[in-house]
Amino acid sequence: MSTPVSTFPHPYRAFTAFLSASFAAGPPPRRQFLPAEFRETLLAGAGERLPLLDAPVLAWALAERIHDADYLRRWRAGEVTRAEERALGFPWSPAVVERGLASSGATLAAVQDALALGLGINLGGGTHHAYHAHAEGFSFLNDVAISAQWLLDEGRAARIAIVDLDVHQGNGTASIFAAEPRVFTLSVHGANNYPFQKEVGDLDVALPDGAGDAAYLAALQDSVFPALHAFAPDFVFYLAGADVLEGDQLGRLALTPAGVRERDDRVFRWAALRGIPLVLVMAGGYNKNPQTLIAARLGTLDAALEAMGQRV
């Protein structure tokens, strides 16, 4: 899908946002995903805030820096089992592969923006359940892991923090970087939610079912920011999952829209005040009320632009 860049002036026109395929083309049909008409509403709102660009397609060689070569070969060829399809969450098709490459390409393109301007945005991404050699939880390629490895390999960052605030633990990411001291994997997630067998990250904060704004923001203040300060990253990936909201079909927490906005404000301000480049990926969101989800997504964009936009 070709998405023209708007010609009217944007308040933060120095920045752009990349459309990963989950927004441009839509994911495979599942009741939890945002219906097409609401995706268009979300894209219209995002386009009022900054120019939108098509996601470039990731080169397979870059995926191989993180993922097993035979695993990638089989998925390219469609040589996958029913068990692998069930673990992913939908059947294999060429579109699944194309979406994975576009989503990962969008995150890598956002990295380039972050290096140049301080902020890069992928309107999708956050496929944090993809492991080195197997797919899980709607995640075929681990877009953030691929981009983090690129930064290390190219010498563009030395200490990377992956701040995963999706309601589900980033198990694939934690596994991939378990032995990599230059990458700090941090996850705040539902204790009793998928994945039911968690990996061990550098910091895991598990919250009980029904935890709301106060408990969540306390976890940020008491655990997340002290850990980030101690690690002292020079690059940050932020997975801003909207599935922490009350009413999410795949989440068990109970944040309000105001709580999610406060969460986002704090993360972006933390990075902006320290001059740390940050890539935003939207990660999960499956709310029963599409308007609630759209408002949260746009609020995350506003928080990013307001905090990081002060630097350009």
What structural class do you assign from the helix and strand content? alpha/beta
Average pLDDT: 89
What gap, in angstroms, lies between the N and C termini?
30 Å
Order of helices and strands: EHHEHHHHEHEHEEHEHEH
Strand order of the biggest β-sheet: 2-1-3-8-7-4-5-6
- What characteristic shape results from the CA principal axes? globular
Overall CATH architecture: 3-Layer(aba) Sandwich
Q: Largest sheet, if any?
A: 8 strands, parallel
Low-confidence stretches: 1-11, 21-26
The CATH top-level class label:
Alpha Beta
Radius of gyration: 18 Å
CATH superfamily: Histone deacetylase domain
Percent of residues in beta strands:
5-15%
**How many extended strands?**
8
User: Into how many domains do the coordinates divide?
Assistant: 1
* Helicity level: 40-55%
- At CATH level 3, the topology is Arginase, Chain A
Tally of helical runs = 11
